[in-house]
Amino acid sequence: MPRRSQKERSLCFSWHQNRPQTGPSRARLHSF
């Protein structure tokens, strides 16, 4: 598993907050 910086993690989190996943495929694609 690749290492993610704190900045990247927070970016992913905000991305999910703004764009909720529409299915399990999306969640698997953009998992953090």
TrEMBL record:
Region spans: Disordered: 1-32
Basic and acidic residues: bias regions: 1-10
Bias type Polar residues, positions: 15-24
Descriptive protein name: Uncharacterized protein
Organism: Rhizophora mucronata (Asiatic mangrove)
